[in-house]
Amino acid sequence: MADLSAFPITTRWPAKYPDQIQLYSATTPNGVKISIALEEVGLPYEPHLVNISKDESWTPEFLSLNPNGKIPAIIDPNGPDGKPIGLFESGAILLYLADKTGLLVPADAARRYETIQWVFFQMASVGPMFGQVGFFHKFAGREIADKRPLERYRDESRRLIGVLDGRLKGRKWIMGNDYTIADISLLGWVRNLIGFYEARELVGFDDFANVAAWLERGLARPAVQKGLTIPAKS
Description:
This protein is an alpha+beta fold. The chain has helices at residues 9-12, 29-41, 60-65, 90-101, 109-137, 148-168, 181-194, 200-203, 209-219, 222-227, and strands at residues 21-25, 45-49, 73-76, 85-88. The protein folds into 2 domains: 6-101, 3-Layer(aba) Sandwich (Glutaredoxin), CATH 3.40.30.10; 107-222, Glutathione S-transferase Yfyf (Class Pi), Chain A, domain 2 (Up-down Bundle), CATH 1.20.1050.10. The longest helix has 29 residues, at 109-137. Strands 2-1-3-4 form a 4-stranded mixed beta sheet, covered by helices on one side. It is globular.
């Protein structure tokens, strides 16, 4: 049985199955990426709910694994050279899981890097912009009388959806016929933008038929449907 005692996070979220990957997350766009990826590759894992509404991601135990204080994070008891490894940042975790299993990233080196660039597109652009739209459109930011910040993030989000729509023209997935971590990194964010953030009309989402069809295909995948609900809130 794996010894995870070197990771203080396990004192707050004990591992019932220490030989499995330990996932510390919540059902946010960043969190569900990893649940979906784990479901897609079939690796056994034990999910732990980090209640961000109660600031649990800022507790010393969580910060000991992820000093950035954001979900998700993982511990793999069977990391490189058979030693446990802890990781944070969803893009890095996605790439790690792909490398570990040989799945969700094309084997060809050039296409591998092309895949990674679209993961970075989500991390550097889509995630931050969509998150700001959510703040200014649905949450506390909507009370701000000056609507220029909302308009800026709306326009930039629409531009980014257009970039994705252009990429998906004539393609089933971002990498053509290959479903990859690039798709996983983006699905939750696009779903949240038009669903949870209620910004469908705001950004004119229905103008982007390629993205809408891709989202529908992605959400129909059994691993995606299951991953969107993990870790459960109760």
